[in-house]
Design goal:
Layout (H helix, E strand, L loop, with lengths): L2 E4 L2 E3 L5 E7 L8 E7 L6 E6 L10 E3 L7 E5 L5 E6 L8 E8 L14 E2 L3 E5 L2
Parallel strand pairs: 2-11
Antiparallel strand pairs: 1-3, 3-8, 4-5, 4-9, 5-6, 7-8, 9-10, 9-11
Length: 128
């Protein structure tokens, strides 16, 4: 499974961006998908995740407290894409954002050790 992120860029505080995570496997909706970020000098942190669509947990989403109410994760109509809509961006959201897939899980979590496939990352910079 290969994951490719896109949609990053430079945005002013209060602005919005939508990140995309496209998978080479068209059954991506069977995977738990997570979004993580890593700012310079900081550890990678979980931002949001969405559970597998094939189980009881279908549609479940989780968010870090720092992004609740501002970020939304969802699956696109094409089964191989997951999006992260980011609104009201703040300078502290500046980081490289990664999507990741957990091929064994059903419900999702924000610990990076759960995920076994990773994309290369896309830079998000929030600055005036």
């Amino acid at each position: 499974l290969q994951l490719v992120e896109s949609g990053g860029g430079l945005v002013q505080p209060g602005g919005s961006l939508r990140l995309s995570c496209a998978a080479s496997d068209f059954t991506e909706d069977y995977y738990v998908i997570g979004w993580f970020r890593q700012a310079p000098g900081k550890e990678r942190e979980g931002v949001s995740c969405i559970s597998s669509s094939s189980t009881y947990y279908y549609g479940s989403t989780y968010y870090a407290d720092s992004v609740k109410g501002r970020f939304t994760i969802y699956r696109g109509r094409a089964k191989n894409t997951v999006y992260l809509q980011m609104n009201n961006l703040k300078p502290e959201d500046t980081a490289v954002y990664y999507c990741a897939a957990d091929s064994q899980g059903v419900d999702c979590g924000l610990s990076s050790i759960l995920y076994d496939y990773w994309g290369q990352g896309t830079q998000v910079t929030v600055s005036s």
